[in-house]
Structures are given as structure tokens and as C-alpha cells.
Amino acid sequence: MRFGVLEHRAGMKQAIGAFAPELIIFTAYIVAFSMSTYVILPLQSLIFGPTLLGSLLFMGHGVRVLSVWLFGLRAIAPLALAEMLATFLIWQPDIAANGLILGSVVGGISCWVAFELLRLAGHDYFYDSGTTQPSWRVMMLVGAIGSVLNSFGHILAYRSTVDLGDELAQLLVFLVGDILGTLSLFFVLMIIMRKMRNFGQTGRD
Q1: Reported pTM
Q2: What are phi and psi of 178, to 5 degrees?
């Protein structure tokens, strides 16, 4: 089963490539981070209380997956910079500079490492690899592997300066947030692509 958004990867990359890809990646991550901070987290706090560090629906991880899929290494710098600025300016947790930097680096490279691990295992799913178009399940697998790496990395980055409480519970929050956020972003993009395709067909008729 193919995921609709993946069927349009050439068009997606061409559209993004018409602008500076780094700027698009940076902006997309900031927008996704802002949605989690200003929309998801307040709703989450009403239900679970303000005890969880991190969003249970973090679409920024989906931005990581798609950005690295399309642009590989080129996506790492804008993702890391966007995470650093978003964490410092929007989220504003009380963490030391070294924790902020380490967390940003982890966020920037986690999905690239996930793609690389699969490539080393004989499954090259990068956009320019020339392999068969991946299914949505493969992309979610990449997102899940990247989320594990990202979650462990952030726990290690923040544990020295932030009271994480039950670290296992916090790890699960990061994992669930990344995976649900990725799935949600893919679903939203699928709907947008389908609407655009239907609109284009209507225009030709």
C-alpha cells in the first residue's frame, strides 16, 4: 500500500527546490513546533495536567522524516538550527546551553541516522537512491527508528539540567509524540495532495 503523499515525491522536491530548500525545511519545522507548543500542548495540559515534557502529537518529527528523505545530509543543518531556535525562543525550557546544543544536534541527525541504518542493512530509501518508491509503512518505520534515537538523545541531553521525573514515561511521551505527529503530518499532506490533484483535474475538464 502506497501513501498518497509519497506518490508525488518528484513534484514535492521540484516545488521545494524552486526555493532555498534549507529555508523551506527551517520554516516548516518552526511552524510544526509552534503548532505543538501553542495548540497541542495546551489541550494536552487540560487533559493530563502540565506534567509531561513534550507533545503527544509532534508533527516536527514528520518534517524531519520528509526533509531527510528528500534532501539527505542537506536537511541536517536547517533541522538542527530550527530546533535550537524553536526550543530557545518558543518552548523556553530551563536547560543549560550544552543541553540545548546537544538536543538540537540530536534532532537534526536522528532521522538521517535512521535512513543510514536501513541503507547499511540493504534498504536504501533516500529519495535519490533510485530504489523502489517506499510505502508509507517504510516511512513510518524510518520515523519510528529516528524517534527512538531522538528520544534517547534528548533524554541524555536534558537530564543534567531538567527534572524529567520518570525517565521511562518521558521516553514514551517523546516516542508517542514523534510517531503520532509523523502519521498526522503524512495524513494532512495526503489530503492536501489529493485536493490539489482533484482541483487540477477539474480545471482541465
Answers
A1: 0.82
A2: -65, -45
